[in-house]
Every structure is written in C-alpha cells, then in structure tokens.
Specification:
By secondary structure, the protein is mainly alpha-helical. It contains 6 helices and 2 strands; from the N terminus they run H-H-E-E-H-H-H-H. Strands 1-2 form a two-stranded antiparallel sheet. Strand 1 and strand 2 form a beta hairpin. The longest helix is centred in the last third of the chain and has 33 residues. The protein is rod-shaped and about 115 Å long.
Amino acid sequence: MNSPKSSPLPADLDARVARFGLRVAAGLTERSAALPHDVSERLRFAREQALARAAQARAAQAAAAPSPSVVQMGSVLAFSGGPRGMGPAGGSDGRNGLWAKLISALPLLALLAGLVLMQQSQIHEQVVAAAEVDTALLSDHLPPSAFSDPGFAEYLRDSQE
C-alpha cells in the first residue's frame, strides 16, 4: 500500500481502495474452497506458468540490460544500472562505485569552473577599466600634480554633478 505522501490519491480515498481490495481478496479466498478440484488444479497450473514466465522475463531483462543510462524516478534523475553498475534499487555491486561517485561530482566541478571563469572575467573588466582611467589621465593636457590638488578634485566632483 502506498504511503499518503507518495500517493496521488487523497488519504481517505486511498484507504477506501485498500479496504475494497481486502474485501475482494477475502471473497475470492472464501469462494476458492468451493471450486471443483479440476478448476483449482487448472488455476494452480496457470499461476505456476505465469510465475515461470515472469522469472524468465526478469532474467532476460537483466541479461540484456543496456549500459547505464539516466532515468527519472519521481522528481529525481537517477542512474539506471547495467549488469555491473548501479542496480534499479540503487545498490552497487562494488565494481562501478568509484565511477558513480566521480560522475556524480561532475555538476559540482562544472559549478566551480563557472565560478572561476566569472571571477577571471570580473578581474579582466577591472583591469580594462583601470587602464582606461590611466590612459585618460596620461593623455590629458593637465600636469599630474593637478590631480593631487584637493581643490582640483573638488572641482572635478562639482563638474560631474
């Protein structure tokens, strides 16, 4: 039975469906004792065949499992394992554990690389801005001593406003 958090149905509807299922199962079990012997034997044989086919299908699926791929499990993306990788239940057989950890670290490495590139870009912009200011100061007609005069700095601030 699904938990209330993982079920798309409201809790009371989920409980009613479960109670209905229990009543149907109890009714079938009660009436199975009244079945003739040949019918119950045919049902038993059909059940055994169905179980054998299901086991063969699971074995064929496990043998022909593709290489690990990304699958969606609810709202989470996960790796679907092949014969040697992470299994569908999330367990590892130990042979690919290191690779799975390295692959899971790739988003963190991409984030760090992006942050480093952004920092380098900001530093480059600051150097270019400082170079423009230096070029403007050195190519101006004023002597450099004028820029150290407090009155001239005040004049520049007033003229910019």
